[in-house]
Design goal:
Elements: E1 20-25, H1 29-34, H2 40-61, E2 63-72, H3 80-104, E3 106-111, H4 119-131, E4 138-146, H5 148-165, H6 175-181, E5 192-195, E6 214-217, H7 227-248
Parallel strand pairs: 1-2, 1-5, 2-4, 3-4, 5-6
Helix pairs in contact: 2-3, 2-7, 3-4
The structure holds farnesyl diphosphate.
Farnesyl diphosphate binds near residues 51 and 86.
Length: about 250
């Protein structure tokens, strides 16, 4: 059975050039470093460089929305050293990339439960979101302390509170209402979800939003992932979409 994807709520027509929403589960940083006998954090640092290069290449690749899974609700179970190292890396990325993002028209948002992050990082997040709020060329969203189920739980709580307050009624709740209570309320649904490093799990990423997305799993480890790797994936995706259109008409 074929669906008219463009009719899905919150979804831009995937055929619109340049309006693609690509989400990425950036996996394999640890293995990349360990393969070389280096600490895992070196892999994360290289991963952050790959993020910068990919964001820069988004306009050429036709990606308008890029959503990256940087830290899951489960990642707190890692060693204190790795968790602190990652948090430091996120803060440094925001500080170092702020000017470039402003210059290149990148709007940076964060999704996930930020209340568990340390106060300085929360302040930095609020600052960069405000600084880049007017940008519209590339919409970069970073998932930090994010879990799809956790997001749905938080959205449900907020809806129940609004029902109790009388500003929402049970009958009013539709597909679109739920989308509006999620962290991604300002984003279209992803067209494509890419996972690197050969793992073929969804791992609690964008569970609601990716209902109609295509999935691509590549063996490339995230620190080896270049704009050219993404270009190859997108070419294959375009062929799939064309075939899809062909069957539909
Ligand atoms: C998964 O690889 C990757 C992470 C948990 C962290 C992702 C973070 C970055 C790429 C750093 C920079 C990001 C931004 C947005 C600035 P893994 O450690 O699970 O790898 P493994 O499966 O090989 O152990």
């Amino acid at each position: 059975m074929m669906f008219d994807k463009s009719a899905q709520p919150g979804r831009e027509d995937p055929a619109t050039p340049g309006a693609l929403h690509v989400a990425v589960i950036m996996d394999g940083n640890g293995r990349w470093a360990q393969n070389r006998g280096w600490p895992r954090l070196v892999g994360h640092r290289k991963g952050a460089e790959r993020v910068r290069k990919l964001v820069e290449a988004c306009p050429d690749l036709g990606i308008r929305y890029l959503t990256l899974y940087a830290f899951s609700t489960e990642n707190w179970k890692r060693s204190t050293e790795e968790v602190l190292g990652l948090m430091t890396l996120f803060a440094r990325y925001i500080r170092r990339e702020a000017d470039r993002m402003k210059r290149e028209g990148v709007r940076l948002r964060f999704i996930g439960d930020r209340t568990r992050l340390d106060d300085d990082l929360q302040a930095l997040i609020r600052w960069i979101e405000a600084e880049t709020a007017e940008n519209d060329r590339v919409h970069l969203s970073v998932a930090l302390n994010y879990g799809g189920r956790d997001e749905i739980v938080r959205a449900t709580r907020a809806m129940v509170q609004d029902v109790a307050a009388g500003t929402l009624s049970a009958e009013q709740i539709s597909d679109a209402t739920i989308s509006r209570y999620l962290d991604t309320r300002d984003l279209p649904d992803p067209d494509l979800v890419v996972r690197t490093s050969g793992e073929t799990r969804v791992s609690n990423f964008l569970l609601w939003q990716a209902a109609y997305a295509e999935y691509v799993f590549t063996p490339t480890l995230w620190p080896d992932f270049t704009p050219a790797t993404m270009g190859t994936i997108l070419k294959d995706f375009a062929v799939r979409e064309r075939r899809f259109g062909g069957v539909k008409t």
